[in-house]
Structures are given as structure tokens and as C-alpha cells.
């Protein structure tokens, strides 16, 4: 059963890439054996990666601007990597945070505070989806409420001004950002007591 699902996921990813990159599809359309081999390898490579992360990877490929389909290892990277393998492979050059692992290890309070503690710009999109789903299921939040919390560290849209203006009015802008964050905190404090 699980193997069939993995093959279905791999076939869906490959089909999407074939549509996005016609040259990628050229050899596969004529050679059924090659296509079956490709699906077999991709199903092994994508094994254990949730469908939401595969869809996220497809979206990143779409936005990459590349003229060529990614290799399987590159596509796995677009999907957020393989957390189980990442733990065992230490990369000394780069010390990045594993937000997926941090999310999975967080207790309820940690999940509530996740975007207080970690800016949206650093957290992968699939963890944001997990955050929304968790809050919908466990707190009854709407997607809009979860998005408010995700945007806690974001500069509000009404503060989008040029760098020159920002430098000249830094103190006032910092107060506006603080007020923005306080409004979010107050909203959720009042919501919890309602």
C-alpha cells in the first residue's frame, strides 16, 4: 500500500515536471521502460516526504526560473530535504536551523510561540502550512488568524517606504512595528479569554 502511494506521488511529480519542461518529457514519452525506471527511482527518493512538501517543491521549481527540470536530489532539496538524513549528515560550512525538526519537537506552547521566536522569512513554507493546520485543529483558528501570527515579525504593509525615508524616521517606524506586534499579541490574548 505504502509503495503504491509513493509511486503515485513520484508519478504525479514527474507528470507535472513533464508539463513544465517539455524537453524533460521527450525521451519518456517514447520509452515506457525508461519512464517506469524513473518512477521507481523517484518513488524511492521521495519516500517519507509528505505530499504537502512535494507540492511545495513543485511550486519552488515553478518559481525557480530554470529552463531545465531538476535532478532528483535537487528536487528533494526543493521539498525541504530529508530531515532523517539531514540529522546524520553534518555540514560544517553552514549552520542552518532545521525548522521542520524544531516544529516536530515543539510542545503545544512551543507551537503557539513558533512565529514569535522564528521570523517568517527564515521558516520554510511547508512549516507554515503545518502551523496553520495545527492551529485549525487544536485551537480552532482560521487561516487568517494563523497568518496574523506568522506575520508577527513582518513589517506591516502600511510601513512599506523607501530606505531613505526609513532611516530618517527610524524611531517612529520602530514604534509602529512595536504597536503592530502588540496588536497581534492583544488579539490572541483576548481571543483565548473569549
Offer a concise description of the structure:
This protein is an all-alpha fold and 194 residues long. 71% of the residues lie in helices and 0% in strands. It folds into 2 domains: 2-86, no CATH class; 92-193, no CATH class.
Which labels suit this protein?
single chain; 194 residues; 2 domains; elongated; mainly alpha; 71% helix
Description:
By secondary structure, the protein is mostly helical. It folds into 2 domains: 2-86, no CATH class; 92-193, no CATH class. Helix content is 71%, strand content 0%. It contains 13 helices and no strands. It is elongated.
> What is the share of helical residues?
over 70%
Radius of gyration: 21 Å
Which consecutive residue ranges, at least 5 long each, have pLDDT under 50? 85-95
**Spatial shape:** elongated
Q: Mean pLDDT score, rounded?
A: 79
Largest sheet: none
Number of helices: 13
Instruction: Report strand %.
Output: under 5%
State the separation between the terminal residues, measured CA to CA: 45 Å
According to DSSP, the number of beta strands is 0
Provide the structure class.
Answer: mainly alpha
Number of domains: 2
| H/E series | HHHHHHHHHHHHH
Element layout with pairings:
Blueprint (H helix, E strand, L loop, with lengths): L1 H19 L1 H9 L1 H14 L5 H14 L7 H7 L4 H6 L10 H7 L2 H5 L1 H4 L7 H14 L4 H8 L12 H6 L1 H24 L1
